[in-house]
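[stage:ingest] chain + small molecule (arginine)
[stage:ingest] validated
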Amino acid sequence: MANDEENVGNVKKLLARVFELSLQATVPDETDVEPIVTASTVGRFGDYQCNNAMGLFSKLKGKGGGQFRGPPAVGQAIMKNLPQTEMIESCSVAGPGFVNVSILKMLLDGIDTWAPKLSIKRAVVDFSSPNIAKEMHVGHLRSTIIGDTIARMLEFSHVDVLRRNHVGDWGTQFGMLIEHLFEKFPNIEAVNETAIGDLQAFYKASKQRFDDDSEFKERAQKAVVRLQGGEKRYRDAWAQICAISRREFDSVYKRLKVELEEKGESFYNPFIPSVIEGLTNQGLVEESEGARVIFLEGFNIPLIVVKSDGGYNYASTDLTALWYRLNEEKAEWIIYVTDVGQQQHFEMVFKAAKIAGWLPTEANKYPRTSHVGFGLVLGEDGKRFRTRSTEVVRLVDLLDEAKSRSKAVLEEREKDKDWTKEEIDQTAEAVGYGAVKYADLKNNRLTNYTFNFDQMLSDKGNTAVYLLYAHARICSIIRKSGKDVEELKKTGVLSLEHQDERVLGLHLLRFSEIVEEACTNLLPNILCEYLYNLSENFSKFYSNCQVIGSAEETSRLLLCEATAMVMRKCFFLLGITPVYKI
Ligand code: ARG
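[stage:predict] done
[stage:export] tokens:
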């Protein structure tokens, strides 16, 4: 039983499998007994328990007796028939036949064997996805943070994740951008970032020209056609504008340590005609007011797939991208992370794909698609988040401010006296960016949240700062003990006697269940809540149980180490860099 392969996955599920074998051996004639396994709430007897004895006893009695004298006897038999497994350290029967098992040993066996087991090999996470030349706003920041965590949880679960940046790099706005570029820089080879300056301002200026000057407007419209026709001068100008935007996006990704692979809207252009043709041949596409559309039951507007001017749109691209991800990239789960405002768009695209037979109609069957929607980021005034000086918040400025604020705190605490400049800088970054990420992830993503530096950078309450400090404190307890914790892991025994030790140990054991829940439901806040409670349980343990110098020192140091290990894994999954000293 006890090979590594079988240690992978959700503890509760694994135990259920073990108990199933035991039940089969205990009552071979009963074919439909589902093992009932729960986490023990008292914890005095074990970590998990099997609750089948009572029900099984009455069932057997109803059939005219059976070989057992009472539920405890059934419990004893279930325990006796448990297969040998390294997962279970010890077991006992309590009360009316509850079979309790202790599985603490797993805590120290290395956390990577705790990953959820999913039935899919490959997923696409479509996230961040800002638009060229338009502002990358806080909505995109949310998408970047939430999408990265979802990708990390899937990767942890051994899924091959294609991290897709579906940037808006195509569309009619490029006509005016290119014309404006030609106008301002007749010699476009010389154009670079510094020449254009702020791309957003450039966008605004060209929009102004477009709205004010009908002759310019006409040229811009022609430019779109020439761009789509692949004319070199136009393609080059387009590529130039994209490159400038891309550099700006990359500086945000670099700060946040987020990996993304760009396949922008333009990538799918060559595939659109045949995809639309396929759908048309299936009889899905109809003519409506000059456009070509797909009517979908349950929606009061149709999905427009070819505009009345013959051009393609957001939906044509998304249908084609979905087709590509399913057929070319062989993705089984395709996840889109955008604000809730786009929910209907995705519902319509998914529905069309189901009607076309690309996706099974049953929910939860693979291949499947999910839209991960999120709410707004609000300012102090309760309105959409903006700063005083500009209408939109520049993400880079936001991150810089988070960093410099946490740096100021470190300097205030005179850390610069014994830390190197580099240490200060790295810690300020870990804490500052971690705070921004955590403030976003800890809320159920569908709710709006208020962006508040003071709150997110506070070292009290449910913040990254509090959690990172808690982790650093645990590390310092271990350091102060002067013991080699890796040695202790090999030789020491971890046993939980005190109530607060048990609560903490049991909470640690739930880690894999929680990751599975957060991952399969696409809800990072579940993991945040787990992490926060873990830290609270640790504080309680630490204030009531002496670690260094106590008779239980070894066991308690191991418990500290297990806690730090699980915390670091949570940080990792949330994209937060841990700190080891404070
Ligand atoms: N560029 C879009 C926006 O900024 C988000 C794209 C999301 N992904 C997609 N496949 N449509 O709103």
